[in-house]
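Hi U.,

Before I forget, here's the chain from the pilot set. I'm dumping it here mostly so it's searchable later in email.
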Amino acid sequence: MPLAPQHTPRPMDRRAFLQYAACAAAATALPRWAWSQSPALQGDPFALGVASGDPAPDGVVLWTRLVLADPAQMQAAHTVRWEVAHDARFAQIVQKGEAPALPLLGHSVHVELRGLAPGRWYHYRFMLGDAVSTVGRTRTAPAAAELPGALRVVFASCQRWEHGHYAAWHHAVADAPDLVLFLGDYIYEYATPKNTADLARTHSLRLATTLADYRDRYALHKSDPALQAAHAACPWAVTWDDHEVQNDYAAGAGRGDADSFLALRAAAWQAFYENMPLRAASLGTPASAPRWDALQLYRRLRWGRLAHIHLLDSRQYRSWQACRTPQSMSAGAVRPADCAELASPDRTLLGTAQEQWLHAGVAADARGHDGGAARWSVLAQQTLFSQRHYPSGVTSTDSWDGYPAARQRLLQAVSGHAPRNTVLLGGDIHQNYVCRVHADPGRSESPVVASEFCGTSISSRSSTTQDKVDAVARHNPHVLLARCDLRGYGLAEITPTRWTTTLRVVDDPLRADSGARTLARFVVEDGRPGPQTA
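Structure:
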């Protein structure tokens, strides 16, 4: 699975180096919440579960992160054993080995398997001393030239701890996906709100600003059994949005002075790598001497010739939100007539290098690459791509609406290269949107060139009302469905002739045992862009 070209990291100055060294030293602490909230963690080094990710035809990444209670163990490096087998009882082991769990990386383990057979399922587990992890299930991608008959993908995002339980993941596991695409906001950096009356659950963590804080936050989220089960059920491919760092940050800018924000961002990015099933290539530097001023998250996953998935990063390279003041808490919205900056052709959401990489990938999907053209070209990214004309006349500046020139460049690439079928997946807004994507967003009579499914959140609440969302839908004829009041995920069932998206929603996000139902189902027929009601 080819990765995108690596960026050359910037030199690390003395101050940043000292900050990095301090962060590395903080790796010796057991997550603070664990002592009081889950004493059982002290006896199970694999209490945060297992995961796998980024499947290729010959391998996959295996992940775990040790939880160690003894101070001497926390200071030391450990050697973790791993096994991969055809069966859950490990009677037919196909590979085994050892991997380091270093304090420098929070005792996380990333094993990159090679030499597996394409297009098949495997079981895996980790061992440390007498402790044995949960058994995970993973699979490899099909061979590059193969056209498989089906692919099942769950796409999801936004799982704020306090706003709801993760019952959605129980139902996602029951849907038996081949792959999960997680599109951002795996954690939220906030402390528990002062008013806890309408929350599903609370935590005692402060606003995250340090490496220890972010490690604690991932440990909290990963203690959830439903989330652990989802990770153990199949491989994931993950990207981030803003709350893995700070609300509405953009590239190297956020709240506070520049040096403090960059130190915070470096800590957050390190914790993200430590807790996700990512390849070492995402570091751009040797894993033994990592740098945290850049991570390579945009990449491609190829599911034979059935689907080429372009997984994007719309945070690390974006321009500062239009007309946003330096110390504002969020990006907000503007009136285009009052914000000339909004329309600037220089503004970018993906950055120049990623834009060029994506445009080249879309072109390759159309003309054929590694065995043939892609039946489905999938752009998996963070937020709503389609335009929303609000009745009030304002424009949101943190989504693609805030970067209209960048959106138009991507639409021109899709229209000009004409992949066989283009589908965009998104998240971020805590709402379900299904849209026809037109070549010119401002002209509903322009050709439909793609289909969009923007999923709601796993648990995070929406900040609007359904009445307002209904008004937006009436104002935008390309919007086929818009719902803000429900939590859940999307299930995409992909075949060579049809893409079917089922929007699954939970009955009550305040209940860990909530049931789920189907909100709606849409299909995209091969060669006919635009969703249709199933």
